[in-house]
Q: What sequence folds into this?
């Protein structure tokens, strides 16, 4: 089966002049006033159906001729919207196909309009690659409200769809070679340059850790590089691309492998973010680096207690072959630091400890620069993309030093695994403006605008934060 196209599905709004039906949006506190204004036409129907304006509630409105006259959806109150972002998407996905426009009982703030519009796009995502005979239903399309940045929302959604498509594709159809194909296609789409270092060339060009992790697979390891833009500040993104992780010789149990097709979620998310940046033609120079490997078993597999000299010259004792993500990122971050850049940001599905700490819905991050962290927090709120800062806690630095080598890839400390992993990576990111994300990349169950399966985390927050981070 061919590698996935970019993307498999394109989100779309309705044309600005398309005939459309109204979707009224009402908060519970506004409901009685709305019913009084609706009069005999709709009020008895809404009362009879028990519509309560709770978040995501939907009631279709019949016209006098028996045709559909519109619909009303509940906005819930501010607390409900805070507890469940994109909750309005439950109503959107229940709407009949066709064109709709938003209507409000009272003027709506721009932030609310933008959030509803983004939820509408994200809720339209479908992953139907392996169900080609499934009959597609006509989607409900939104006529974008005035004042909403349509191009920006489309860029966000399209980048997110790319991320989801890549994560959702199983490993037999998305190994290092297929990820390279998707990466190269992304570069070509936006006129970026790309290059690839494969197989034993990694050793020849001094990427020993990437080679060591991926050499056991018949699908050769590789380092993917994209460069785009000619003016403005320089941003370097690094995404972990472990296309499948068995754990290597420190083999995972069967249950631990069930989600390992998503271990390239950092690569998928940085590719989605890169797509957003290039689609919006932001005034910056972008460099995207993705080490792409499979962590599997064969006679030449990486072994526990191997000591490998990294690209940076630091020696690493491999105390767990299942802690491979930080190894491939180490060489890549060292390479990223060799070129002058204004910021380095890495994203990886790196540790189970991060999930224990914050669960699947939050993207924990580490930042060396306070201004970058402040910009990210603001961008996360605006992008409905929650993040949570964790510290580069200096007191844990000795934990990652095994004594026999410079660094230990899996210290037996028993605590703070996400923090010690971040400290390990920081040793290779020789830059004062380094930021790291330890994401999950997966929705464990269906949620509004986020179906079960692959999902991006932190990309919209970063996109919104880039002006503050880089002075755009």
A:
């Amino acid at each position: 089966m061919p590698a996935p196209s970019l993307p498999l599905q394109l989100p779309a709004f309705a044309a600005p002049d398309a005939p459309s039906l109204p979707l009224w949006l009402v908060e519970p506190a506004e409901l009685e006033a709305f019913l009084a204004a609706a009069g005999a036409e709709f009020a008895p129907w809404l009362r009879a159906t028990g519509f309560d304006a709770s978040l995501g509630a939907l009631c279709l409105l019949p016209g006098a001729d028996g045709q559909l006259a519109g619909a009303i959806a509940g906005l819930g109150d501010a607390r409900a919207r805070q507890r469940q972002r994109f909750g309005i998407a439950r109503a959107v996905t229940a709407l009949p196909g066709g064109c709709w426009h938003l209507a409000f009982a009272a003027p709506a703030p721009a932030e609310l309009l933008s959030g509803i519009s983004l939820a509408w796009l994200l809720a339209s995502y479908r992953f139907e690659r392996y169900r080609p005979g499934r009959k597609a239903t006509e989607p409900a399309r939104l006529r974008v409200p005035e004042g909403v940045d349509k191009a920006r929302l489309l860029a966000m959604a399209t980048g997110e769809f790319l991320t989801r498509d890549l994560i959702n594709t199983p490993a037999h159809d998305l190994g290092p070679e297929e990820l390279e194909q998707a990466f190269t296609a992304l570069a070509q789409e936006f006129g970026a340059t790309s290059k690839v270092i494969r197989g034993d060339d990694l050793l020849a060009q001094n990427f020993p850790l990437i080679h060591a992790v991926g050499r056991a697979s018949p699908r050769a390891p590789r380092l993917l590089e994209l460069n785009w833009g000619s003016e403005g500040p320089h941003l370097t993104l690094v995404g972990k691309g472990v296309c499948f992780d068995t754990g290597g010789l420190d083999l995972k149990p069967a249950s631990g492998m069930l989600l390992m097709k998503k271990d390239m979620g950092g690569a998928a998310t940085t590719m989605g973010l890169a797509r957003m940046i290039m689609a919006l033609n932001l005034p910056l120079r972008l460099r995207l680096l993705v080490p792409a490997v499979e962590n599997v078993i064969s006679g030449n597999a990486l072994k526990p207690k191997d000591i490998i000299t990294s690209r940076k010259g630091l020696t690493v004792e491999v105390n767990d072959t299942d802690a491979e993500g930080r190894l491939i990122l180490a060489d890549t971050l060292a390479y990223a630091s060799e070129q002058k850049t204004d910021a380095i940001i890495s994203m990886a599905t790196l540790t189970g400890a991060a999930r224990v700490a914050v669960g699947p819905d939050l993207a924990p991050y580490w930042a060396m620069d306070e201004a970058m962290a402040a910009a990210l927090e603001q961008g996360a709120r605006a992008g409905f993309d929650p993040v949570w800062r964790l510290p580069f806690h200096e007191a844990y630095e000795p934990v990652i030093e095994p004594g026999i080598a410079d660094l230990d890839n899996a210290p037996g400390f028993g605590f703070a695994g996400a923090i010690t992993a971040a400290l390990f990576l920081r040793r290779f990111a020789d830059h004062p403006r380094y930021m790291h994300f330890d994401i999950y990349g997966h929705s464990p169950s269906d949620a509004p605008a986020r179906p079960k399966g692959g999902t991006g985390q932190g990309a919209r927050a970063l996109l919104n934060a880039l002006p503050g981070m880089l002075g755009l």
Q: What stands out?
A: The two ends are 41 Å apart (CA to CA). The domain at 152-470 is CATH 3.40.630.10 (Aminopeptidase). The CA atoms of residues 41 and 64 lie 8 Å apart. Confidence is low (pLDDT under 50) at residues 1-7.
